[in-house]
Amino acid sequence: MLELSILGLPTAFFAGIASFLSPCVLPLVPGYLSYIAGGSVAPTVSSAEARIARWRILGLSACFVLGFSLVFLVLGASITAIGRLFLSYRYELNIVAGVIIVISGLLIMGVVRAPLWTQRYYRFESKASGGNPWSAGVLGIAFGFGWTPCIGPVLGGILALGATAQTLDQGMLLLGVYALGLGIPFLLSAYFMTPFVRRLGALRRTGRYLRIVTGVIMVLMGIAVASGQMVRFAIWLLRTFPVLGNIG
To answer: Where does the chain cross the membrane (predicted)?
Structure first.
């Protein structure tokens, strides 16, 4: 669990943030928030009513985040279960997972061009009207499935790492932290909607830098996984940065 805590969990969290800031997610966040809220997300009413409205939107957005988090938790459990079926081929599994993680990192950085199918999403229309927890949760589940091709390079690397986890709990924890990294910015953008819209351009630029950093980390982690040096790498990080021992 040591190498998963020190390496996997922070990487999964920042990978989730990078997914939120990706070109195929970030520009569509205001539209999603508007649907979740059942209309305008920038009420022009008194400050007290606006504050109540913001908390209401935040609550509905939390239902949305829970929806796609459930999808990622199921994916994490499933990929870990599949990985455990090949315990007798753990060496080969680590090599394959490491290669996938390295390729994912290169895709995130833009060093390797992603296939066209990873730049699209599948949109699921909900028949329920927005503005209630049920529709927000259903939309979150649809988001989890529909945006999987779009965030595929990031999610694929995290899933590959999850396949090497020793237990289902570890795999679900890894994907849960990824969902947390994706969900927290969404909740912040829901509560601070007006400043969020004004700073979309700056967030796009920040997203580019974050994707590069995340990509480099994933490439290094992929090499460590493929070479079987994850534990040694984790111990080196722990000695170099003792604060990492508080993670997990």
So the answer is: 12-36, 57-83, 95-116, 137-161, 173-197, 209-238
Of the given ranges (5-9, 100-104, 198-202, 223-227), which has the lowest mean pLDDT? 5-9
User: Strand, coil or helix: what is 68?
Assistant: helix
- Helix (H) or strand (E) segment spanning residue 154: helix 152-163
3-state secondary structure at position 45 = coil
Task: Please check whether residue 179 is in contact with residue 69, taking contact to mean a CB–CB distance below 8 angstroms.
Answer: yes
- Residue whose tokens read 């580019």: 208
The SS3 of residue 128 is: coil
Distances (CA, A) of 101 to 12, 38, 95, 97, 176: 12, 39, 10, 6, 18
Q: Provide DSSP, 220-241.
A: HHHHHHHHT-HHHHHHHHHHH-
Q: How confident is the model at residue 23 (pLDDT cuts 50, 70, 90)?
A: confident
Residues whose CB is less than 8 angstroms from the CB of residue 38 and which lie 6 or more positions away in sequence, other chains included: 129, 130, 131, 132
- Tens digit of pLDDT for each residue in 127-141? 545 567 888 888 888
Task: Quote the tokens at residue 245.
Answer: 């021992």
